[in-house]
Amino acid sequence: MNGVFLHTGWRTSGTWIWSCLRRDPEKMCFYEPLHEMLPDMSAAQMREIGGGSWSSRHPETAPYFIEYLPLLRPEGGVRAALPGFAFDRFFLGAGARDDDLLGYVTSLCAAAQAAGRWPVLKFVRSWGRVEWLRHNFPEFAHVLVMRNAWTQFRSGWRCLVEDGNPYFLAAPIVVLERNADDPDVAALVSALDLPIPPVAALPPIERINAWYRVIPDMPAAMLYRCGFAFWLLGLRRALPAASLVLDADAAPALLAARFAAGTGLTLDLGADGGTARPLPPRLAFAGMTAQDVVDAHVKALGRLVERIDPVTTARLRDWVRKAERAALCDLEQPVARRPEDLLRGLLPGIAVSH
Question: Where along the chain do its domains lie?
Answer without folding.
Answer: 4-346
